[in-house]
Amino acid sequence: MRRLSISRVEGILAPHASGFRLWLTERGYRPPTVEDHVWLMAHLSRWLDEQGIEPAAFTDEAAKRFQRARREHYSHLTGSRAVRPLLGYLRGLGLVPEPLASGSPGEAVITAYREYLLGERGLVEGSVVLRARVARLFLGELSDPIEAALAQLRPGDVTRFVVTQCGDGRRGTAWASTLVSGLRSLLVFLHVTGRVPVALAAAVPSVASWRLSSLPRGLDRDHVERILTSCDRASAVGRRDYAIVMVLSRLGLRACEIAALTLDDIDWRAGELTIHGKGGQTDRLPLPRDVGQALVASLRDPRRDGECRAVFVRTFAPDGALSVKAIGAVLRDACDRAAVPRVGTHRLRHTVATELLAAGAPLTEIAPVLRHTNLSSTAIYAKVDRTALRALARPWPLAGAGT
Questions:
Q1: In whole angstroms, how far apart are CA 256 and each of 71, 202, 206, 242, 253?
Q2: C-alpha span between 327 and 244 (Å, rounded)
Q3: SS3 135
Q4: Contact, 180 vs 137, CB < 8 A?
């Protein structure tokens, strides 16, 4: 079935069609896509009339029924993601109910836990996502009702969970560390909110690891150059990606810090960047000329409407800042184009530190660049300074020398 070039909405949702069209346009959707979504609204309006359902009764179950009905007649915009913009608009008007919580019995607890981490602990969204994932895994192992299971929680249950999750050999030390750290945080929250009567954070076993045992690995400068060259600077997306890799490889910023950059953080006259780091830390860094030029080129995108203050924005609608996950994806895609092994954003942070060390910079000067509040965090790079370590090496015993 073909739709009209300009979609017309009839029925119960008709009064909201023009507002929905404007709402989509303001969020950067292109005219053909706007009409696609208004066409979807028209279908939903007809379906609600046919079923005798008021928008206020359009629950999650009703949404699934609508999607099944739509797939019987259409092949376009039939998935759950397709209806999200429309439902988001209608929920903003208060016409349809908010989605029900996930089927997990501990979802209400996880929602409260997320609010605690964001509001009380001041964690960034990326850390909250990781800890919520651990919480969902742990609470999903408990029986219903969840309140009674938490009230009866004992140290043995905590230890058993950790051993089960880490004992299959499929996950490495990094996952184990994330698991135990997140579990301790969750148990503290459960205790201070009265859901668990006994403090159980101490019952979480530790992961066998040794501080400074690993060796930081930077990228060869040749690989960095190939990654930068792979970005098509003739396109707006390529200029944006080039600027992201430049900031990563020249300033050593974390992905969360890049995602948080706004136009207000750039002082062009002073040549400085304001960085919003971990734990609410704010620092100012010099803005190198080549990085500044890359940023200027990326900001000269005619599709930017001037309303979004983020430095790095999405390519496709809805408009908005790039997420931390998207920053990592930009680097991975650039590695693929450059035919070099994929690396994470933190690898380029290591690259900045090791290059500074190779140039003769002492650790006391590298620490401010990386914005380490404790010099011990920078001390790991001393192990890659072979020149300095060579003076500490004792001579090898000569063959035949006396004992």
A1: 39, 30, 27, 17, 8
A2: 8
A3: helix
A4: no
Amino acid code (one letter) for 248: L
Q: What are residue 283's DSSP bridge partners?
A: 275
Task: Give me the pLDDT at residue 335, please.
Answer: 93
Return the amino acid letter for 288.
Answer: P
Please name the helix (run of DSSP H) or strand (run of DSSP E) that holds residue 42, with its range, or none.
helix 31-51
Domains delineated in the chain: 14-92 (1.10.150), 107-203 (1.10.150), 221-388 (1.10.443.10)
| 2 — pLDDT class (breaks 50, 70, 90) | very low
Alpha-helical segments (H) within 311-374: 324-338, 345-358, 363-370
Q: Which of 137-151, 265-279, 295-309, 375-389 has the lowest mean pLDDT?
A: 375-389
- Please enumerate in sequence order all residues whose Cβ is within 8 A of that of 51, keeping only pairs 6 or more positions apart, or say none: 62, 65
CB neighbour list of residue 394: distance below 8 Å, 6 or more residues apart: none
Token duo for residue 209: 């690891």
Q: Residue 42 CB: number of other CB atoms within 10 A?
A: 20
All residues at 6 or more sequence positions from 15 whose CB lies less than 8 Å from its CB, including other chains: none
Dist CA 119 CA 49 (whole Å) = 43
Task: State the Cα–Cα distance between residues 344 and 348, nearest whole angstrom.
Answer: 8
Instruction: Please list the active-site residues.
Output: 254, 278, 346, 349, 372, 381
Look at residues 245, 254, 401 and name the one whose alpha carbon lies nearest to residue 337. Answer: 245
Distance CA 338, CA 334 (A): 6
Give 3-state DSSP helix, strand, coil % of the chain, rounded to 5: 55, 5, 40
Neighbouring CB atoms inside 10 A of 34's CB total 20
DSSP labels, 76-131: SS-STTTTHHHHHHHHHTTSSPPPPPPSSTTHHHHHHHHHHHHHTS---HHHHHHH
Is residue 6 within 8 Å of 36, Cβ to Cβ? no
Share of the chain above pLDDT 90, in %: 27
Q: Give per-residue burial for 271-290: e unless 16+ CB within 10 Å, then b.
A: eebebbbeeeeeeebebeee
Contact 85, 320 (CB under 8 A): no
The amino acid present at 54, given as its one-letter code, is E
* Four-point Cα dihedral 189, 194, 195, 196, nearest 10: 80
Q: Are the beta carbons of 167 and 131 closer than 8 angstroms?
A: no
Q: How many residues does the chain have?
A: 403
